[in-house]
Design brief:
Blueprint (H helix, E strand, L loop, with lengths): L14 H9 L3 E2 L1 E7 L2 E7 L3 E4 L4 E7 L5 H4 L4 E6 L5 H8 L12 E3 L5 E3 L4 E13 L2 E12 L7 E4 L2 E4 L3
Amino acid sequence: MTATTDPTAPRPASADLLRSVFRRHAAGVAVITARGEAGPVGFTATSLASVSAEPPLLSFNIATGGSSWPVIARTGHVGVHVLGEHQEELAAVFARRGADRFAAPTSWHEGPEGIPVLDGVLAWLVCRVVARVPAGDHRIVVAEVVHGDPTGAGRPLLYHQGRFTALRD
């Protein structure tokens, strides 16, 4: 079999290769929120990562072409929400272009630093943005935790193979 017809042969780097590999990687689902001049903004993220314990830092990625980027580019604080398996529709709303993400049935309140905090999530944090690092057509946002609540009930929502899913026992 030649390298060009061998399905197990390495493929050259491409956006399709990257997407294909990361479809196989299960990721937790978070919603990032911020307060903008025209109202709250938010988006679904599967790139949430713990960066440092001292000081407590986390990171997430955001596309610079996304509707939330202009606010995230300027804001001093963001909300980070870990979604539960019961919040698949909430994740879908915050992932959908053109959706009114904060309209009913989304339930939220103003939290510390004026950040929109979603109700009923597994955990939430309010963080101070400390860096926005260019990375291709995205930015890696690094933020320091300043407030939060880890006490929500339930199990985490996951994203795998292009769809939302839950843990199996």
